[in-house]
Structures are given as C-alpha cells and as structure tokens.
Design brief:
α3 runs antiparallel to α4. The relative contact order is 0.15. This protein has 4 helices and no strands. The protein is an all-alpha fold.
Length: 108
C-alpha cells in the first residue's frame, strides 16, 4: 500500500502523531523531575531513506524499539511501587504499539 502514498501524503499521516509524541515526552519529563531525576534529552537524527516504504519500515522499527523501552519502564515502575505511573505507561505503550502496527501495515 505504501507505494500509493506520495511524500506529502505520508508527511500528513505522520504529522498527526506529533502531538501525541510531544505529550508523552512532556509527561515523562514532568514525572522524572517530580521523582527528583534530571531530564536528559539526547535526540538522534533519523536515518536517510530513499523511499516511502523504507521510511515506513524505519519508523516502524523505531516504534518497536520505543515499545521495548516502555515495557522496561513499566517493570521499573512496578518495582518502584508507583501504580499510577504503571497505568500511564501502559496507556502510552498501547498507543505506541498501535502506531507501530499501523506503520507496519502501511509498509507492506
């Protein structure tokens, strides 16, 4: 299906997820600060790609990495005993899993 998407169409599709991703980042930064931690932002540049399909595949792989990270954070929150944090992270995990699956479907 991705071969039917043009660059601008794909951009619009992915742009819709930006607000959600920013909200996740703000929540996590606030929680880290509330727990006395220091927020460290270390963005990485995306890999250069040559096609919409390759971009979708790279984004899906990145989402799967994020899913693994949230799964680990959930375990840490459970060990810490913060049930509210566990629930919030599980909600975020569900959104990220849905997003990864959508990208994977589009890349086929």
């Amino acid at each position: 299906m991705c071969y039917l998407l043009f660059g601008h169409e794909l951009r619009e599709l992915l742009k819709a997820d930006i607000v959600s991703e920013v909200n996740h980042a703000v929540f996590l930064a606030d929680k880290i600060a509330a727990l006395g931690g220091e927020v460290k932002i270390q963005p990485t540049l995306p890999k250069k790609v040559r096609s919409a399909k390759e971009m979708l595949e790279e984004n899906a792989a990145a989402e799967r990495s994020v899913v693994a990270s949230y799964t680990e954070r959930i375990g840490q929150a459970e060990a810490f005993g913060d049930k509210g944090l566990v629930i919030r992270l599980e909600d975020i995990l569900a959104e990220e899993t849905d997003h990864a699956e959508e990208l994977e479907r589009l890349a086929r």
